[in-house]
Design brief:
The protein is mainly β. The protein has 3 helices and 24 strands.
């Protein structure tokens, strides 16, 4: 081969090698990402129509609009339409032609119904309808298969369409403050629901199918007329917020104990006569409020709720309390006021954090000495009982700051009561005291001493006025 052909062969090889190597390197280069520009939010229809190909957000809120021009249907790329805080009485058909809408805000208007055209908006993810005058919603709602958020609070709905069960993407349903009397059984197929707000309605019960919503984290049922919960209510194992006060519940299902994600359990203003034993399984509850019910007894399993910090049982029908029910290390507040308690013999020796015990308005005739072992107490309320004296053992409660004994039948006091060094408030009003120790002037922290309504001897009353130098002394 001649030298000329050899050089040509080498040159061709070099050129082809560089070409193939360059192609391999180009394949390894990361693609340059295009940075999308944020969408412009137009605040007038005219301006949006001038840019109808790019207009995706139109905000016409708070413009006192009573109607919407039909031209809005030309904004075929619109994804967000805000019409809240206007004067709209009906939804124009032109809006139902905006088939790419993902968010539609119609809150705070004067709408009385949602017409069938709503079913055309199959891409809708968020629908705001709160604070209107809605009395009905179309069954076409069920065609909104992409809907994730439905807000219909503060309307006048008595029912919701059964087709809601087809809205499988729903995660948040807010029906607060309507007139709902019944919930359709189809709600049970909305298995992605996480928040369901039914506060302030007229519901008398819940369908068993609601127990299928196993992803639900928040359920609000305040101020309805619910008498019973479904037996399988405990299936809602993801619940971490349950509001069910102000109903007509007389009992709770035994499955209730499965709701172990709950941190607060508020059951006030019902008609509960008892609590299930399974309540002790709610090991994460920190606040238990069963006030204003008709409880006569309590399950001792409450002692197993080891994270309980506050227990409110006021205004029930409790009479005799004993056993280990309240022997909980984390307990800080125990409110047993407005009951009919005649005996309190509960072990509370584990309650090293207990700061407040409230026995106001009960029927205790003798001071429960078991209380004096809880030296962490800072506030103790025995107002409105039938106590005739205060035992010397109360001096063991060296951390007391507030002590209430008004409206009892007390005739004598411990001579050294002043030695409670941290005591700031002492209420002895409306008792049967004729004479008291005059050494309260030696109390180190006492600021308020209420002695009103006692039948003191006149000569002793004069002594009290002269010798007691408490900052706020109430005698007459």
């Amino acid at each position: 081969m001649s030298r000329k052909y050899k050089l040509m062969f080498v040159l061709i090889f070099i050129i082809s090698f560089h070409a193939s190597y360059g192609q391999k390197r180009s394949k390894k280069k990361p693609a340059i990402e295009q940075v999308s520009q944020p969408s412009i939010e137009y605040t007038s229809l005219e301006e949006a129509l001038l840019n109808k190909k790019t207009a995706t957000i139109l905000n016409l809120e708070n413009q006192k609009l009573s109607s919407i021009p039909d031209e809005i249907s030309k904004l075929q790329n619109l994804q967000v339409l805000k019409l809240g805080y206007n004067l709209l009485e009906k939804i124009p058909e032109s809006i139902f032609k905006l088939i790419n809408l993902q968010k539609l805000y119609l809150n705070n208007n004067k709408l009385s119904e949602i017409p069938s055209g709503i079913g055309n908006l199959t891409k809708l993810k968020e629908l705001k309808l709160q604070e209107n005058k809605l009395v009905a919603m179309s069954e076409e709602l069920g065609k909104l298969s992409s809907l994730e958020i439905l807000l219909c609070a503060e309307n006048q709905l008595t029912t919701i369409p059964t087709s809601i069960g087809s809205c499988n993407a729903l995660q948040i349903i807010d029906l607060f403050n309507n007139k709902l009397e019944i919930l359709p059984t189809t709600i049970g197929t909305c298995t992605n629901v996480k928040v369901l707000d039914l506060n302030w309605n007229q519901l008398t019960d819940l369908p068993d199918e609601i127990c299928n919503l196993k992803l639900m984290e928040v359920l609000r049922l305040e101020k309805n007329k619910i008498q019973n919960l479904p037996q399988e209510f405990g299936n809602l194992v993801k619940l971490n917020e349950l509001v069910i006060n102000d109903n007509q519940l007389s009992n709770l299902p035994e499955s209730f104990g499965k709701l172990i994600q709950l941190k607060e359990l508020i059951l006030t203003k019902n008609k509960l006569i008892g609590l299930p034993e399974s309540i002790g399984e709610l090991v994460n509850v920190k606040i238990l409020d069963v006030s204003q019910n008709q409880l006569v007894t309590l399950p001792e399993s409450i002692k197993n709720m080891l994270k309980l910090e506050e227990i409110y049982l006021y205004n029930n029908k409790l009479t005799i309390l004993k056993g280990e029910t309240f022997n909980i290390p984390a307990l800080r507040i125990l409110n047993l006021s407005i009951n009919k308690i005649t005996q309190f013999n509960c072990n509370i020796y584990k309650c090293k954090q207990l700061q407040i015990i409230d026995f106001e308005q009960n029927e205790l005739k003798s001071f429960p000495d078991i209380v004096t072992n809880v030296i962490s107490l800072q506030q103790l309320n025995f107002a409105g009982n039938r106590l005739s004296d205060i035992p010397k053992s109360i001096l063991q409660l060296e951390n007391l700051k507030q002590l209430f004994f008004s409206k009892n039948e007390i005739v004598t006091l411990p001579l050294n009561l002043y030695q409670l060094n941290w005591l700031e408030t002492l209420d002895l009003s409306q008792n049967k005291l004729q004479i008291i120790p005059l050494n309260f002037g030696q109390a180190k922290s006492l600021k308020q001493l209420d002695l009103r309504g006692n039948p003191f001897y006149k000569w002793h009353l004069k002594q009290i006025k002269e010798k007691l130098t408490v900052e706020e002394l109430r005698i007459e």
